[in-house]
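Cross-check.
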Amino acid sequence: MGGGKIVGILIFVVVVVSAAGGGGGENHHQQQQKWWKWMSSTSAAVVNPVVSSSIVLPLYGNVYPLGYYYVQLNIGQPSRPFFLDPDTGSDLTWLQCDAPCVRCTTAPHPFYKPNNDLVPCKDPLCASLHPAGYKCESPEQCDYQVDYADGGSSLGVLLNDVFHFNMTSGARMIPRLSLGCGYDQLPGQSYHPLDGVLGLGRGKTSIVSQLHSKGVVQNVVGHCLSGRGGGFLFFGDEVYDSSRIVWTPMAHDRMKHYSAGSGELIFGGKGTGLKNLFVVFDSGSSFSYLNAHTYEGFISLLKKELNGKPLRETKDDYTLPLCWKGRRPFKTINDVKKYFKQFALSFGNGWKSKAHFEIPPESYLIISSKGSVCLGVLNGTEAGLQNVNLIGDISMQDKMVIYDNEKQAIGWTSANCDRPPKSSNMIM
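Predicted model, tokenized:
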């Protein structure tokens, strides 16, 4: 598929033990290397609890044509900038690391220079990356390997370093957090030329979990992706008014992912009979995915709706699997959105009423460089996601989406994502 480069999936991180000798079926990685001492060192950073404040970071990028969003984090002493892929589908934050690199990909900045502050194998953060009963090859260090659904992976060692954050209160915080120093990377199908991944998931190693454990912010992470490109990412609960958010509980049986549990597909305001859909919110994916049965049903409804409209399917645009042409090339979504209906995922949340995650045409279609209109909802079964239905970046545009790990709920509301909030409880 010609559009494979922009079909980003960063989800379902599987952490496996990288046993010495490259065992465990992971023979694409060279033998785990023994860590050694580096010349650089950093001083400890003192963190005072300021949980009444939040961190807001600008986002860059877009769904199309770039295919991903990214955030700049300043890490180390002296502080250096790095561009990271913000991924709610995985936990571990890692940087391509000058270790030296066994295999590393092109990056926008010089590779991260590691320090001496290794996370030991017995540390609880290390334990959370490995299965129970994992035996330490080297007690003084924590080896990791993460594999992503698109075939990409990173292997390296966990260490601690200083992260530099400006709080909404005006304070400057420099907590010392754990991150992966990745010295062996394999790019996946959705390879993004970035310095690494920012893990925003529910596990202990995720940045939001670590910031919370150090008393910096509440255990809440959210994002606001602009359909015009850019947006903002935030940690903490001080940048929105909770009463204006649509909330639904996180699924407790899916502890690894941000899932709202079982959803139903609504099309044009009407039920479709496509129910019991396991739905995951994943900011590491450019596009949205439905399992094969649901996808086929959705396509059938779309085509029925387009019958008699001045659009015809085109086979000569490979941007995405399904594209339509008009009488002349389209310039913007506004040229075509009148032909398409809104759809939604409805969650029977056991609270006051059903929570509807509404997806208008501009949140599931793109205008390709050829002037076609293409469907940004893909067949997840074909992409290797099995029965998972995934809400990706395209469908979260122009919404504030919040993952509240304190009250175990996912929330959303329409928002202007072009303007990062400047003070408490601002969402517009």
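Confidence is low (pLDDT under 50) at residues 1-50, 423-428. The chain is about 5% helix and 30% strand. Passed to J.P. for a second look.
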